[in-house]
Amino acid sequence: QVQLEESGGGSVQAGGSLRLSCVISEYSYSDYCMGWFRQAPGQEREGVAGIDSSGTITYADSVKGRFTISIDNAKNTLYLQMNSLKPEDRGMYYCTMEGFRPASMVVAVKGRNGFGYWGQGTQVPVSS
Question: How many Å apart are CA 19 and CA 35, to the nearest integer?
Fold first, then answer.
């Protein structure tokens, strides 16, 4: 079965940077979408960045220009480089994978809708 495991989270000051990693056990589909979601306290899980098998990448407007999503296929690892972090970026960050989804879906859905495989999350507290 597909398993995902995030790492790289931790306390960071506003303006700082973190790189999150997500090791994926396997790619279940040749047509896939992988992405990062975050869930702030008291809020729904929301999509941050997505990448699909066509190479298309999409970002939530709130992180454009600051976050970069990438995949190292040889290492089966999904990354999220986060720069210029803001207090509103705080939350639990989850990686996800699903087949037959476009990258744009990551920022279009709420909660866990449309994505079946999730990691356990990694916490990113951002202090002012």
Answer: 14
Calpha distance 43→121 (Å, rounded): 15
pLDDT tens digits for range 48-83:
999 999 999 999 999 999 999 999 988 899 999 999
- Evaluate whether 59 touches 89 at the Cβ level (below 8 Å): no
Pick from 17, 75, 80, 86: nearest CA to 49:
80
Spell out the residues 6+ positions from residue 6 whose beta carbon is closer than 8 angstroms to its own. 20, 21, 22, 93, 94, 95, 119, 120, 121, 122
H-assigned helices in 1-102: none
- Is residue 29 within 8 Å of 17, Cβ to Cβ? no
